[in-house]
Structure prediction request, 264 residues.
Amino acid sequence: AVGLMAGKRGLIMGLANNRSIAWGIAKSLHAAGAEIALTYQGDALRKRVEPLAAELGALVVGHCDVAEADTIDAVFATLAEKWGKIDFLVHAIGFSDKDELTGRYVDTTEGNFQKTMLISVYSFTAVARRAEKLMTDGGSMLTLTYYGAEKVMPNYNVMGVAKAALEASVKYLAVDLGPQNIRVNALSAGPIKTLAASGIGDFRYILKWNEYNAPLRRTVTIEEVGDSSLYLLSDLSRAVTGEVLHVDSGYHTVGMKAVDAPDI
Ligand code: NAD
Prediction:
């Protein structure tokens, strides 16, 4: 992939630490020659993001909490001033109260439903609207989703409902932005042990289940998600928009427990 992203610049949102999916994507983009800008959420994460940014020679744009629109505006104002134009956008952000990532979906509270939707769904649209203005030569936008959007997964609850809405918004955004040659896609990653994932009840069970039952009989890494994202963020996928690409060792194809799967 050397040179695949040469001359391209873009923003990656959602880096928390070196286990983040955003980090896998940032490393692959950097290795392919892209110039990267990063945001962080709050001072605690700033300390983690700055050294990672330095490893890739990335621009740290600043703090962004997508629940506060003025912080999104500030990020895009800085990008407009420093770069003027961007070619890609990665949205690797999701949040739900961990007390509701366990038990029954039916017990979801109104407050957490709204917060989950705002941060995990609307924020992609809010960011896309600002990024559109900087994608004057076309571009590629990518968000991260999960199979829990399509099928019911234990404990995923309101996040599953949010990911379903996120995938629908990918299609609506693809139609709105297509005439400007801006493509909008989602990458549906298999389960990976990250900070966000550790909030999901019994996550280890989900990991094991995937390892035993996915066609490739293993889970996926952030580096593999990063390499697959290169396809969606580069000109290799220049005719692809409104798509959800599964990077999950093939798990989404499976209808039943594998015959050789051990008990967990
Ligand atoms: P992570 O904890 O490393 O990243 C989540 C990021 O969301 C963090 O950087 C956090 O700062 C950011 N975030 C949360 N609320 C925010 C807010 N209000 N404003 C700005 N940023 C905010 O975990 P991850 O697993 O790398 O998550 C990245 C994306 O991948 C999420 O959308 C997640 O749902 C999705 N995903 C994860 C998995 C998995 O198994 N880990 C699988 C499929 C999809």
